[in-house]
Specification:
mainly alpha
């Protein structure tokens, strides 16, 4: 199997939870989840944070805190504990947490 095929599968696997969360929240531009770099706008929009927060991604270690903060806000907006966002920078765990946030619906939940 070629490396680009593996890269494509991995990218789709990590983009799919974002797409599912956006679809469930009836976001008009859910398809943007599959476009590199533009997906950051979608993440910021779903977390209700300013896109300028993305400038902090250029600073080492601060980018981890920003990543955790944004995903904590997304978890909170999907009626889950914001503590789930703390696990998102962990490589394999982020895949599990992403699908948990996308697919698990607590009783009485809203998107």
């Amino acid at each position: 199997m070629d490396n680009w095929i593996i890269d494509l599968i991995v990218y789709i696997t990590f983009s799919l939870p974002l797409f599912i969360i956006a679809k469930k929240s009836e976001h008009e531009y859910a398809w943007v989840a599959f476009i590199p770099l533009f997906d950051f706008w979608l993440i910021c929009d779903m977390a209700d944070v300013n896109i300028l927060l993305g400038l902090l991604y250029f600073f080492p270690y601060v980018n981890l805190l920003v990543h955790m903060y944004i995903w904590s806000r997304i978890a909170e907006n999907t009626n889950k504990s914001p503590l789930w966002g703390i696990l998102m920078p962990v490589p394999v765990v982020s895949l599990i947490v992403g699908f948990y946030l996308a697919l698990y619906e607590p009783s009485g939940g809203r998107y």
